[in-house]
């Protein structure tokens, strides 16, 4: 709900982004987070990277190159989970 919604951002150097995001996610393991990226390729790449890093929380990806049914499945899975991270393009911002 808007009353419990929390928005965070961190300013860092480009070469630090993955490690800073990893640290942020590790410190928010019991929450839901949405991380917005500017392109489908970024979402796909970082989804693969973070799945390999195994941050201790479920990682999901939502972007415009997915079929509508797959986007709905990902969204519903995110809603069902108690804690998860959704890597998304602005398609999620328009539809959530």
Structure description:
It is a single chain. This protein is an alpha/beta fold and 96 residues long. It has a domain at 30-95: Rossmann fold (3-Layer(aba) Sandwich), CATH 3.40.50. It has helices spanning 17-26, 40-53, 68-80, 90-95; strands at residues 32-36, 59-62, 84-88. The chain has a three-stranded parallel sheet with strand order 1-3-2, with helices on both faces. β2, α3 and β3 form a beta-alpha-beta unit. The longest helix has 14 residues, at 40-53. This is ATP-dependent RNA helicase. Keywords: ATP-binding, Helicase, Hydrolase, Nucleotide-binding, RNA-binding. RNA helicase.
The assigned CATH architecture of the domain at 30-95 is: 3-Layer(aba) Sandwich
Largest sheet: 3 strands, parallel
Termini distance? Answer: 12 Å
Number of helices: 4
Shape: globular
The strands making up the biggest β-sheet line up spatially as: 1-3-2
The arrangement of helices and strands along the chain is: HEHEHEH
* Spans of at least 5 consecutive residues with low confidence: none
Structural class: alpha/beta
Q: Which homologous superfamily in CATH is the superfamily of the domain at 30-95? A: P-loop containing nucleotide triphosphate hydrolases
Strand content: 5-15%
Q: What share of residues is helical?
A: 40-55%
Radius of gyration: 13 Å
The CATH first-level class of the domain at 30-95 comes to Alpha Beta
Write the layout of secondary structure elements.
Elements: H1 17-26, E1 32-36, H2 40-53, E2 59-62, H3 68-80, E3 84-88, H4 90-95
Parallel strand pairs: 1-3, 2-3
């Amino acid at each position: 709900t808007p009353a419990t919604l929390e928005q965070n951002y961190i300013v860092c150097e480009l070469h630090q982004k993955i490690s800073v995001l990893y640290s942020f996610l590790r410190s928010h393991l019991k929450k839901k987070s949405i991380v917005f990226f500017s392109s489908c390729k970024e979402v796909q790449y970082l989804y693969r990277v973070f799945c390999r890093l195994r941050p201790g929380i479920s990682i999901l990806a939502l972007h415009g190159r997915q079929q509508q049914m797959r986007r709905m499945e990902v969204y519903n899975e995110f809603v069902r989970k108690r804690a998860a991270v959704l890597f998304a393009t602005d398609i999620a911002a328009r539809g959530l």
